[in-house]
Amino acid sequence: MEILQIVVVILILFCLIKPLGTYMYHIYAGTATKGNRFFGKIEAGIYRLAGLKERQSMSWKRYAFSLLLLNGVFIIFGFLVVFMQGLWANPTGLKGLDPTLAFNTVISFITNTNLQHYSGETALTNMTQMIFITMMMFTSAATGISVAIAFIRGITSKSTTLGNFYEDFTKTIIRLLLPLAFILTLVLVALAVPQTLASSQVATTLEGVKQTIALGPVASMEAIKHLGTNGGGFFGANSAHPFENPTPLTNVLEMLAMWCIPASLTYTYGRFAKNQKQGWVIFSAMFILFLIFLSLIFMSERAGNPVLTELGVSTSQGSIEGKEMRFGLAGSTLFSTITTAATTGSVNNMHDTLTPLGGMGTLALMMLNVVFGGDGVGLINMLMYAMLAVFLCGLLIGRTPEFLGRKIEPREMKLITLTLLVHPIIILVPTAIALLTTAGTDAISNPGFHGMTQVLYEFTSSAANNGSGFEGLGDNTAFWNMTTGIVMFLGRYLSIVLLLAVAGSMTRKQFIPETIGTFRTDNGLFTGILVMVVLIIGALTFLPVLVLGPIAESLTL
Questions:
Q1: Looking at residue 397, what is its pLDDT?
Q2: What are the Cα distances from residue 332, in Å, to 74, 184, 248, 358, 495?
Q3: Shortest CA distance to 161 belongs to which of 47, 62, 24?
Q4: Are 172 and 92 in contact (CB under 8 A)?
Q5: Rounded to two decimals, what is the model's pTM?
Q6: Which chain regions cross the lipid bilayer (predicted)?
Q7: Of 1, 6, 5, which Cα lies nearest the Cα of 295?
Q8: Which of 257, 343, 412, 479 is deepest in the core (most CB within 10 A)?
């Protein structure tokens, strides 16, 4: 029955990929659709208000500058909101956030990470949750998707430019995220997820004790939280909270919501490449990796804790510590796999209580950061690996590396290599610093190998812009707020700028006609090569630190 539950969710996803991927292709390809008249009027008003009557296609440098400029404005806005939240619309009397916590929170949400060193219902007002947190969930997701579309244009079209960032950004919000979030919000409200402007409700228990229950516009935040692969919870317990995720049905909807856009973008890529097999190769590589780590996490949790088994107190349900019984083992492990694969960060169970190998599975997905990934980001990371695989194959067989009719040359490989190095550096260096300083080790709640994993998970989640955490770590300190904030910022914008530079470099190359000697990238062989390249590079980079953490912990049980 547990396997059947997982299979059903996967089959539903398969049914969503083609229609959603096709819809996104029409949005960014500018083809005539029935919704153009309606959405076009809204967008025209936004362009007039913003002074964007002429929206010329941009070079990669201008595209990157426009992205950073707009995100910079959002950062300033975010600081003003969180510092001044105590001055207005504040019935619960909450104060502004501490400076280091404010820094961490603003950077977290602008980078699509949504790492939370605070508990939403006790730290932020409903107004802050709406005008800052929810708004950033739309803008950060739109930024990632826009970058993916620009990258796709760079490697598939004959144009020397990448499109207009502001137009891509606006279309993503108006035509994609808002309609989907509106529909999902209505569905969640119908399934008993609260949506109200009331900040709390006083209830009297059976013992006669009055209890104040936090409320707010939860459903609307839940919708974009998952569709935008954001992950930040309205409540501290995130999607384990019964108001955020009350039933197995809402659990399935939230899993599909955070999975559907990253998965469907592979189909969109195939449409732009005018060869749908290219899109299916990328999807297949992602899906194979997903199944590998889903199997690891599920089987580890199903086997349970061997120490409890020896004591004779284990259950037939496997490891159920930290899991909600309304979701069961299947609903919990699939959620954990999707949220770390799609770098959403939403959790419906506590990852700190996963078995060592189960926790390693979630860690590995964030370390690879290509198994579907966040909205847009996962696709361009996998395409980066595809270009690397083509280059390596070209070296091995003595052919000029080509990808989609363009040569892969030293300039692209230098940029790709630099991108590959950034991710492990901003994970491993801060992890080492944290383990060497009392400011870092004082936050560890479980010393030993598990404490090592807590620290590693925090920085991996930050670098991958995931946001989930091993919640046993006491991370609301100046050290952790500042270090993770810096890692989140670098993990987001360095890779975006470098990969836009790769796309810009590709636009300057002439198309090469396909010949009998061209190495094909649209078949099963290349899918297998791509999977192996990802796994080998991931293992060479991260296996030593995994041995010191979850693997060592598993061996000691």
A1: 78
A2: 34, 21, 10, 11, 31
A3: 62
A4: no
A5: 0.95
A6: 6-28, 63-88, 130-152, 173-193, 249-268, 280-299, 378-397, 418-439, 478-503, 524-547
A7: 6
A8: 343
Q: Which two tokens stand for residue 204?
A: 């009297």
Tokens of 288: 């194979």
- Using H for helix, E for strand and C for coil, what is the string for 493-515? HHHHHHHHHHHHHHHCCCCCCCC
Distance of CA 30 to the CA centre of its chain: 27
pLDDT tens track for 346-391: 999 999 999 999 999 999 999 999 999 999 999 999 999 999 999 9
What band does 20 get if pLDDT is binned at 50, 70 and 90?
very high
**H-helix or E-strand containing 204?**
strand 200-204
CB 303 within 8 A of CB 318: yes
Candidates 420, 416, 421; CA nearest to 391 is: 416
H helices, E strands: number in the chain:
22, 4
Cα 487-492-498 angle, rounded to 5 deg: 115
Partners of 204 in the β-ladder = 210
Percent of the chain with pLDDT over 70: 99
Report residue 264 as tokens.
């469907």
Q: Label residue 201 by pLDDT band (50, 70, 90).
A: confident
